[in-house]
Amino acid sequence: MSSGCPPQSPAVAKCEVAVEGECPLLAATFAYWDNILGPRVRHIWAPKGDQLMFLSDGEVTFLANHTLNGEILRSAECGAVDVKFFVLAEKGVIIVSLIFDGELKGDKNTCALSIILPQTELAFYLPLHTICVERLKHVIRKGRIWMQKGYNIISVLSLEIVPIMELLASMKSHSVSEDIDIRDTVLHDDDIGDSCHEDFLHKAVSSHLQTCGCSIVVGSNPEKVNKIVRTLCLFLTPAERKCSRLCRADSSFTYDTGLFVQGLLKDSTGSFVLPFRQVLYSPYPTTHIDVDINTVKQMPPCHEHMYNQRRYMRSELNTLWKTDSEEDIPPDTVIHTDETFTPDLNIFQDVMHNDTLVKSFIDEVFMLKPGLSLRSTYLAQFLLLLHRKALTLLKYIEDETQKGKKPFRSLRSLKTDLDLTVEGDLNIVMAFAEKLRAGLHSFVFGKPFYTSMQERDVLMTL
User: Signal sequence: where (predicted)?
Assistant: First the structure.
């Protein structure tokens, strides 16, 4: 019998996943609608070890069935994935379920990939909801191809279910606090030279803001790494800080797609290899900061990042579709086979644009006496200034384009009128505005698509 077909017995396959630390996830399930037997659970993933709350296999099956009830008449576009969020107070659990159509044994079935958590973890999970959902959506795209070709979808789903369990466990123990004490950051030092060189801190914060607040901090000293992580998190919102992670002192976490700031330790040889696919699939471009050698590099801007991400995603799915057997290409392999798109694995570039906003802030904040609340207040005013500049930029573009009805053609006027003639300042405010209005970069720079080098040439002439 094909491994893509459901088992004929009512027994549910289950695998226990060894996760280091306390995993708040109770279970993950893959269920489908059987036209004869109704909702059936195909597979259960459960973290191994002691848990504060335990669900029996029967309870997990009941909860998984609950998500598919009423979906038999589901009407959705081909390939659509519906996200449903259930809070079952009587069971004390929350269920996040992704409903999609797939083929099992040649028949079209309604399927559900669900994760189950205790209701007490609701506040912990909500900031991470978007991260988990986006990662599960993409593995479903690959899984639907695997199902249609008659391959084992469970092996594909496990490639993301297990890392999400590990992510939630790591965030439970090492997530950044919503309220950061400035005394635990570089901004509390008496002098900027106490912890790092002035130019390094300036470049790190500037690039961090230019890449929408997404950064990777790597190094050999966990205390130094975490101090820079907390410093960068000062420039994030409380919700974004909950999606950031400190490094672990005894061993390094793996890189996780979707986190805003994450600290990672180098291995015994002094190196850390970043996974290309996961970095490219991050929702925003990323800054790479090495605290050992004081280097700062960044990915291309948002519109180029999204362009590369979507082309690579299509290339990956096309390659999976062309496979002749399940063993030809593992679903987590970096794709190089599409001749129309060869990804540049060296995706981090030097920070090309200087700015005046962060430079002035760094210079002035260290003129204030440490140990008082002055520096925290000054930081809050700086972030408020950037937020208002971003809102002004959005309003300016709305007026110039009649709310998107016309293409945007007056970048030179925008830079002059909003006092953003310095390229780094423009990039920082554009990144803030991108988070307020997704797709702004692509709209402003328009089509045809400019590479980062071409874009820099264009900006220099305006």
Answer: none
